[in-house]
Design a protein that fits this description.
2 strands, transcription, DNA-binding, 287 residues, mainly alpha, Arc Repressor Mutant, subunit A, 13 helices, SANT/Myb, two-stranded antiparallel sheet
DNA sequence: AAGTCTGACAACCGCTGCTAA
DNA sequence: GTTAGCAGCGGTTGTCAGACT
C-alpha cells in the first residue's frame, strides 16, 4: 500500500549532517524537548525530514550516548539477547545503556556475525553451523512453527503464563514451570513444543530470568506501551539473579529515564521500578 | 604513488503498529 | 469498522578511510 512521503523531498537536504544542522537540532531539542518530529524541522529551521532529525538525534546527538568500542561483556550480552530476541535491535539496545539500535545492528553485521561464525555458530540460529547446514534439519526448522526465532516475533504467549528460566545447558527446559489456564491454545502449544524441542539442543547460559510478570495496573504502564504479547514485554521485568559480568552490565542498563535526568522520584517509582525492586528500560515520556 | 579492495558506519527507505478522528 | 497520520523499526545502501597490491 505504502504511504505518502513524510515530507517534501524536494525541499529537504540529504546526506551527511553538518555541524550547523547538528547544533540547530540540539538547541531546539534542548529548549523544546523531543516530540512531534514531523513539525520539528520547520520549527527548528532545518531543511531535513522529521525522520532524519529523529534518527540523527537518537543515534548520534543524544547526550547519554556511549561512544567507543564495545566491551567484551557487551558483545556477549548482545549475542545472548540476539539468541533470545532475534533481530529486534531496538529491544537489544534497550538493554545496553548508551547504545543505539543502529549502532548494535551495524556492530552485529560487521563484528559479531564473524565472531559467531569463527566459533562455528550460525549467526541467525545460534546453532552449530554443521547442524544448521544439514538440509533436512534446516528445512524442517525453517519451515517449522517450532522455532520462534525464525519468525518475525516471538510467540504470542501471555507473559503471565511463562516462567521460563534459562539455565546452564545441562538443565532441561522441560523443567520450566509452564502454567496453563486449562485451555491450551494452539499458539501456546506450539511454544511449549518449541521449548521442548529446544531443550534438546545446547542451551545458552543466558542467566536471564523471564519470570512471572506481575500484574501492571494502568497507572504503572506507559500509555504508549504495547501489548504484553511482545518480545519487549517478555523482558520487561527481567532480573539478573546471578551477579556475573554480563548480568551486571544488563542490570546497569536499567533505568534510562534516570540516566536522562528524569529521575524525579515519583517518575521512577511509578514507571521504572517493579515491585521486586528491579528496574526496566523505559523511554522518557514526552513532557 | 596510484588504483583497488574492504570494512565500518552514517543515513535513507519502506514498512508496521498504534492512535485518533 | 475504516482511514489517515505519525513514530518507530529493521533492512539496505552510500560514503569514506584505511589496507592492500
Amino acid at each position: 500500500m505504502g504511504r505518502s512521503p513524510c515530507c517534501e523531498k524536494a525541499h529537504t537536504n540529504k546526506g551527511a549532517w553538518t555541524k550547523e544542522e547538528d547544533q540547530r537540532l540540539i538547541d531546539y531539542i534542548r529548549i523544546h524537548g523531543e516530540g512531534c518530529w514531523r513539525s520539528l524541522p520547520k520549527a527548528a529551521g532545518l531543511l531535513r525530514c522529521g525522520k532524519s532529525c529523529r534518527l540523527r538525534w537518537i543515534n548520534y546527538l543524544r547526550p547519554d550516548l556511549k561512544r567507543g568500542n564495545f566491551t567484551e561483556e557487551e558483545d556477549e550480552l548482545i549475542i545472548k539477547l540476539h539468541s533470545l530476541l532475534g533481530n529486534k535491535w531496538s529491544l537489544i539496545a534497550g538493554r545496553l545503556p548508551g547504545r543505539t539500535d543502529n549502532e548494535i545492528k551495524n556492530y552485529w553485521n560487521t563484528h559479531i556475525k564473524r565472531k559467531l561464525i569463527s566459533r562455528g555458530l550460525d549467526p541467525q540460529t545460534h546453532r552449530p553451523i554443521n547442524e544448521t547446514t544439514g538440509a533436512s534439519i534446516t528445512t524442517a526448522v525453517k519451515s517449522s512453527r517450532l522455532d520462534f526465532r525464525d519468525r518475525s516475533s516471538p510467540p504470542a504467549l501471555p507473559v503471565s503464563e511463562i516462567n521460563l528460566i534459562m539455565k546452564p545447558k545441562t538443565e532441561s527446559i522441560e523443567d520450566a514451570n509452564f502454567t496453563s489456564s486449562g485451555t491450551t491454545t494452539e499458539e501456546e502449544q506450539d511454544h511449549h513444543d518449541s521449548q521442548i524441542h529446544r531443550a534438546h539442543e545446547p542451551q545458552p547460559n543466558l542467566e536471564l530470568t523471564i519470570g512471572l510478570v506481575p500484574f501492571q495496573s494502568e497507572s504503572t504502564r506507559s500509555s504508549s506501551s504495547s501489548s504484553l504479547n511482545t518480545a519487549e514485554s517478555k523482558l520487561q521485568w527481567t532480573s539478573f539473579p546471578c551477579p556475573s559480568a554480563t548480568a551486571m552490565v544488563a542490570a546497569k542498563a536499567v533505568c534510562l529515564c534516570c540516566q536522562l535526568g528524569f529521575q524525579n522520584g515519583e517518575f521512577c517509582r511509578n514507571c521504572c521500578q517493579n515491585p521486586n525492586g528491579f528496574y526496566r528500560f523505559h523511554r522518557p515520556l514526552n513532557p
